Amino acid sequence: MLTAMIIQNVWIAGGYATGREVVEFIAKYGSLAPISIAVSGTALAVAVYLTLEVARVFKAFNYMEWSKQFLGRLWWLFDIMFIAMSWIVLAVVIAASNYMVSDLTGFSPHVITAVIIVVIALLHFFGRRAIEASWVIGSLGLVSAYIIAWSYILSAKLGESLVKISAGLSMGTGAVAAVDGFRYMLYNLYSLPPALESADRYRSRLESAVASILSVVLVYGTVTIIWLCLMAYYPQVINMTAPMYDILKSLGGYWALGYYMFWVFYTLMATALGMVYAIIRRLEAQLKQRKASTKRTREALLAVLILVIAAVTANQTGLVKLIAEGYGTMAWAFFAIYFIPLITIGTHKLLKENKSSTPTTP
After folding, report:
1. H-run or E-run covering 186
2. Rounded distance, CA 214 to CA 207, Å?
3. Residue 185: which residues within 8 A CB-CB, separation 6 or more?
4. pLDDT for 153-170, tens place per residue?
5. Looking at the predicted structure, is the pLDDT value of residue 361 above 50?
6. Average of per-residue pLDDT across 66-94
7. pLDDT above 80: residue 29
8. At how many degrees (to 10) do helices 128-166 and 243-250 cross?
9. Residue 360 lies in a domain
10. Contact indicator for 190, 85 with CB cutoff of 8 Å
11. How many domains does the chain fold into?
12. Is the pLDDT score of 293 beyond 90?
């Protein structure tokens, strides 16, 4: 369950928590959205299972050693891609936090950014146990926040959603919706490397399979209900900057909005934490090869540096543009450098390893 919680926490990001990326790649297709969800969820189950199995079988629990298993000497391509995607995700997290929290509380975006940086730096200073505990707390808190937000919206708008779905209100075609659903899964593959270390507890393929199923249920169960909420406002929702936030605010549900925002902000920090954590673990693996190591103080300072760079990007680009252009472009990079090599070379190596470890019958 820890693996699924880590993936969910990192997956949330600014686009998912606000509903913006669900609109961009799934909900904008209206009644055709279930096609996007089905394609995306199936592909994710395959990707999570193979990712965890490669980590478990070859004991590759940081993304440098892990990516070498299916990219070989070209492992550095994954390094470049993951760092680039981390930069975009961190910028989206900061942009989303600034937009929602500053609008709700009146706090300066600079203050909000400073809080994110300080919290993440402190968690890195206190180490792995503190980080994993924060992910578990965030996952449970977010589920409770979503239940309250969904209940508030659907109690008022479920009828409108169902009318629009039954009327077949949509845009595009099923094929286009399927492709965008696949793209949605592809760029969100960045959520998997931060969970690699959790696979060091696994002893069988069954545990990897269970983790993949739980991950799909947590992520796409949430996506499905968000889609139902957004359908009540279709097609106007397509132009909303932060749909879930904007809808709750328009309904006057400030108590629900306040609770929702607390846990969304917490989980946005957990997303940023996951990205920074994966980069620092990658750096630590490189230093171990040189018989050196990172100290917690240095890890905290490195986290601060990474987040400051992302904050500058967020302020210059904006949330909607980051999601539409940044995520959309990175989807195909993940397809070429992660998904295809994993399901071909990765599967081949796993089958070969399984065959060599299976005792022959005399």
Report:
1. helix 174-187
2. 11
3. 39, 40, 41, 43, 44, 47
4. 999 999 999 999 999 999
5. no
6. 85
7. yes
8. 70
9. no
10. yes
11. 1
12. no
DSSP letter at 19 equals T
**How does pLDDT run across 102-119, given as a tens digit for each residue?**
887 888 888 888 888 788
pLDDT, tens digit (0-9, with 9 covering 90-100), for 226-282: 999 999 999 999 988 888 888 988 888 778 888 888 887 887 777 777 777 777 776
Which amino acid appears at position 186 of this protein? Answer: L
Q: Angle 183-137-216 (CA atoms, 0-180°, nearest 5)? A: 30
Cβ contact 35:177 at 8 Å: yes
Cβ(328)–Cβ(21) below 8 Å: no
Q: Tokens 């169902």 label which residue?
A: 162
Tokens of 51: 């990712």
User: 69: which 2 tokens?
Assistant: 């298993």
Nearest to 244 by CA among 109, 146, 103: 146
Q: Which of 12, 33, 23, 323 shows the shortest CA–CA distance to 146? A: 12
Does any domain span residue 359?
Answer: no
User: Hey, what are 42's tokens?
Assistant: 């199936």
Cα 113 from Cα 106, distance rounded (Å): 14
User: Computed over its alpha carbons, how large is the radius of gyration of the chain?
Assistant: 20
Please check whether residue 110 lies inside any domain of the structure. Answer: yes
Between residues 100 and 147, the one the model is more confident about: 147
For residue 26 the two structure tokens come to: 């799934």
Residue 338: what residue type? Y
What range defines the domain where residue 294 resides? 2-354
The length of the chain in residues reads 362
Asked if the structure places residue 25 within a domain, the reply is yes
